[in-house]
Automatic annotation (TrEMBL):
Transmembrane segments: none annotated. GO terms for molecular function: DNA-binding transcription factor activity. SUPFAM superfamilies: Winged helix' DNA-binding domain (SSF46785). Gene3D superfamilies: Winged helix-like DNA-binding domain superfamily/Winged helix DNA-binding domain. InterPro entries: Tscrpt_reg_Rrf2 (IPR000944), WH-like_DNA-bd_sf (IPR036388), WH_DNA-bd_sf (IPR036390). Coiled coil: none annotated. It comes from Thermodesulfovibrio autotrophicus. It comes from the Bacteria. One of its GO terms (cellular component) is cytosol. This is Rrf2 family transcriptional regulator.
Length: 135
């Protein structure tokens, strides 16, 4: 699995906001500090808002704020907010794409690997990433 640049930026955004719990950050600040083009960031913020991860407050005194505490937001949450699913192979997303899935010996392996990956991603929250990394 390779995450998209958009998802990488979303992870950076949530990580940045995790260091500012209870505070509102400006999009310009996030863009500058995390090296994310502002126009791209605005699209990412909207997706994260739709997923309930953060809230956007418009206006002069507005900004961006996490909706949940960093220990309640996992890497899985952010990846799914951006990618909609976690998959290693297209046949795991839709069996109908591959006519061999019913007799392919690798097909069940992709499901086991995906399930383990999801389990690990759900174990890594942003509080842990912020303080000690994923080790």
């Amino acid at each position: 699995m390779q995450i998209t640049r958009e998802t990488d930026y979303a992870i950076r955004t949530v990580l940045y906001l995790s260091g500012k719990v209870g505070l509102t950050a400006k999009a310009e600040e996030i863009s500058r500090e995390m090296e994310i083009p502002k126009s791209f960031l605005m699209k990412i913020l909207k997706k994260l808002e739709n997923a309930g991860i953060l809230s956007l407050k418009r206006g002069v005194s507005g900004g961006v704020e996490l909706q949940k505490k960093p220990n309640n937001i996992t890497l899985y949450d952010v990846i799914v907010a951006m990618e909609k699913t976690v998959a290693l192979n297209r046949c795991v997303v839709n069996k109908k794409i591959c006519g061999l899935s019913s007799r392919c010996p690798v097909h069940p392996v992709w499901f086991r690997v995906r399930d383990r990956l999801i389990q690990i991603l759900k174990e890594i929250n942003f509080s842990v990433l912020l303080t000690q990394g994923a080790a």
